[in-house]
Structure formats: C-alpha cells, structure tokens
Amino acid sequence: MNYFELFDLPATFDVDVADLSTRYRELQKATHPDRFANASEQQKMLAVSRTAQINDGFQTLKEPIRRAEHLLELKGVDIKNETQTVKDTSFLMQQMEWREALEDISHSRDADAADELEQTFKQYRAAITEQLQHLLASDDASVIQNAADHVRKLKFMAKLQDELVRIQDALFE
Known about the structure:
The protein is mostly helical. It folds into 2 domains: 3-62, Helix Hairpins, CATH 1.10.287.110; 89-171, Up-down Bundle (Monooxygenase), CATH 1.20.1280. 74% of the residues lie in helices and 0% in strands. The protein has 7 helices and no strands. The protein has helices at residues 3-6, 17-31, 41-62, 64-74, 89-108, 111-135, 141-171. 16% of the residues are buried. The mean pLDDT is 92. This is Co-chaperone protein HscB homolog. Co-chaperone involved in the maturation of iron-sulfur cluster-containing proteins. Seems to help targeting proteins to be folded toward HscA. InterPro entries: DnaJ_domain (IPR001623), HscB (IPR004640), HscB_C_sf (IPR036386), HscB_oligo_C (IPR009073), J_dom_sf (IPR036869). Interacts with HscA and stimulates its ATPase activity. Residues 2-76 form the J domain.
C-alpha cells in the first residue's frame, strides 16, 4: 500500500504534517464504519479495513523515520525489521562515545551534561535528516542504499534519545 497515494500526497520525505492531518480527518470522516451501520456485512468489513489502512498510513507518514522507511520500501528496500547495522566506522566510533557519555551522565547525575548531549543529538539528527531528504529524492540504487544507512542512523539516534530521556527523568526523581 502506497500511503502517499492514499493521502493524495507527493511521495517525498518532506511532508506538510498539517496538510496530512487535514487529509486524514477527511478520509476518516468519509470511511468511518459508523457511516456504514446499515450497509451489508461486506461493506462494513471494507469500511473497517479502509479505516485501519488510513490509521496506519497516517501514523507512518507523520513520523519521519517511519515515513523514510516507507519511501525506501516503495523504492524496493525494506529495512523495517532488519538486523543489519550501520557500517560507517566514524558513526560507530561516535555511537560508542555517546554511549559512554550516557553512562557517565547516569552515574554522575549531571543535568548540564545531559542537556549538552541532548543538543548534540538534536544537531546530529538534523544534519542526517537534511541529507536524507536529498537522498530519498533519488532513484539511483546506490544513493537509496546510502539513504537506508541514514535511516539506520536515525533509528539508532532515536534509541539513544529514549535512553537519554530515561536518564533525565531519573535525574528529577
């Protein structure tokens, strides 16, 4: 299922989330199962199925990593459930440093260091996301593989961010 077609949006990484939300509400209104209360069982089941597709499509397109994964899938690269890791050695070294920093913050309970690391994560994600936007516009196979690596990096960064949030929450308990 191409969710961009479902929402009548161009298949690009840069999505206007407000426009997506408006289209979502319109589609929900048109296909809501309550509108089919007096319809046949088959029509009711189709309405429920369509509503589920619309919900899944909205959740996929509104979240940047899931949106990027969907774009990759449309280009023939499925990384949603893969176990492949990033092969970029500089990124691997950076992630080791970040993990050490998280551990240090956890032990030292240094809120300022946590804030600094959060800013570092934010800047790194922004740079990767900007590059990803350009990479996903291509149909070249090697460029698309590079885009897949960028998505893997973003997925890793999301895990680091979650870990940092847990540490920050613990600092304020």
